[in-house]
Amino acid sequence: MLVLKRISLGVISVIFMLYFALWLLSSSVSTYFLSQQLASQNIKLADDSIIRYNPFISQLTVEKLTLTKENATVLSLQHLTLQLALHKLLFKQLVVQKFTIKSLYLQVAHNNHQLQIAGINLPKRSNKSSLPITEEQPTATENLIKEVLLPQLRITQSQVDLQLNNFKHQIVINNFTLKNIIASQEFVRANLAFDGAIDTANSQLKARLRYKNKQANIDSQFNIAHYPLAKIKPYVTQLTKLNGFISLHVNPVLQFNEDNIIAEISEITLRAEKANLALNHFVIQIPKLTSILNNVNAQISRDIADNIAFSLASINLQTKKPIVFIDNNLTPSLSRTLFIDTFKLGALNTQEGEKSTPFNLIAYSNKYEKIALNGNIKPFAKIPEYQLDGQITEFSLPSISPYLKQAMQLELQSGQLNSNINFSLLGDKIKGNVDLLIKGLETTSADNNEIDLLKDNTMLPLNAALGMLKDGNGNLELSIPLSGSTHDPQFGVRSFISLIAEKAIMSATQSYLIKTFVPYANVVSVALSASDLLLKVRFEPLYYQLKQSKPDEKQHDYLQQLMALLNNKKSLHIKLCAISVPADIGLKSKTPLTKKQQKKLLDLGKKREQALKDYLVENYNIDSARLLFCAPKIDTEEQAKSRIEFSS
Known about the structure:
Layout: H1 2-39, E1 43-45, E2 50-54, E3 59-69, E4 72-84, E5 93-111, E6 114-117, E7 120-121, H2 140-144, E8 147-164, E9 167-184, E10 187-198, E11 201-212, E12 215-228, E13 241-256, E14 260-279, E15 282-301, E16 308-312, E17 314-319, E18 323-327, E19 334-345, E20 348-349, E21 357-365, E22 369-378, E23 385-396, H3 401-408, E24 410-426, E25 429-445, H4 460-467, E26 475-485, E27 489-491, E28 495-496, H5 510-517, E29 524-529, E30 534-539, E31 542-543, H6 556-568, E32 574-580, H7 595-620, E33 627-629, E34 633-634, E35 643-647
Parallel strand pairs: 5-8, 32-33, 32-34
Antiparallel strand pairs: 1-3, 2-3, 3-4, 4-5, 5-6, 6-7, 8-9, 9-10, 10-11, 11-12, 12-13, 13-14, 14-15, 15-16, 15-17, 15-18, 16-20, 17-19, 18-19, 19-21, 21-22, 22-23, 23-24, 24-25, 25-26, 26-27, 26-28, 29-30, 31-35, 32-35
């Protein structure tokens, strides 16, 4: 008995000594063999790296591990602890009692279908398997382990540098946690939480995974704030410029089974801030925009060709600030703003294709131009159908003059468009009508920004032709039908609402006119034209001080009389035509102007027109539709003064 006891103590002592030796030598041995393996990849292991295994508690500890390749760090790890319960292997369980990683830095690169992790090139995936797969034969791991248990895996204060085809991204991990993991062939459970940053954008992810009876469920929530769009630009090669920020909130619930993949999302919120998109010379600036999608559902069959189902309850689009459209292909560049007051799209469902989906849009461009559209769509019907009704009001025609200037070598001096649209598309068949009301339309030849170079005589035939279509108030009304197919649309003039040969000549006497306009002597004057023996009424200009853009006290008397005239003549529409002079920007008269100087003077004219219209609308309640903008001009003549000229 004593001998047996001594033998047992001896065996235990030997095992203890072996364990102690393994613990003591594990760092040196592991670093030696690891260095040999890494040398084939030209990777060096730092001399102060520590890798130690404690067999007494089955714990692996790694400290100050650093890998370098070509003098660059590809992996560094301040601390790792991995502890297993080896005795649980007797019950075919792999139990990870402790798993923590702190201060990890890792480089990952994927270029030309080659994946590299920590400087190590991983084998490329082969499409062909060298050995046949037999589902009936279980693997050695399946015989050894039936269940994996991991109470918690935690990674903190870490960073992953990711390179995709030479485009760099960065993931900062403040805290990554996997909790309550149970995994077997029949059942899987796990909870995940991530808090950190993706390309400097604060990000959070929470997810709960459940797998049972060959069905998986993932309930998750993801937030990312102020993600830099410049990081997406390399993947959108069509755009010449993309910057700004986007934020996303989404809470998908995913279900996987043998037949389908089902996604249910109660809300998707996408925000864009300070975004700039450019396609060649065309630029879109989005200061702030929010898009909300409600109750999004999608179902994809394993055989995608067999069935794809999609539905959503609604889409809401909101803008806090106007969207700016800039066309730099024009000289000077054209800029327009769009403020979306309302955009709503109703329910869409691929399984209910014959059900109409309503939509509504109310938007404003350049403050007074209003766009109101509504209708119904059936994009998933057997024969897709789209129906649209809408109105465009107070659209300033000089704003599109640069495009006509290129195409027809003419400019729109003034004019305002109002339009009613009724349009339907059934399959490829078009049916509809567009009613146009154009007020105060005047044209001139192109490239006449300077008033002393105006050659209106070149446009007299066109102006005369347009004049024959105007009614007694100088308005042009047309009705244009739409018909045909999308491949061959027909645009025809079905009828003129008004066809007036010419404006009626003035029939009142000179004394009557003078008496009529005496109260407005600062604003209008009456003159007799000797050439055609007609009385002509003209507006006196409103003069501005140099560099002045907004009305001031010196212009009060003039504006008071102008307001009184407009209130007395309710049907009177006037055009505001701003004229700047070189002295507005500190130059002398007759000075040749560069394109940059011309643009500066024309922009000042636009500001004067806009500020005056705002002043009359906000202070005197003048209907904005009665005040029409002209294309600003420049007067380089001696003694010329900055002014706004008016005409009816």
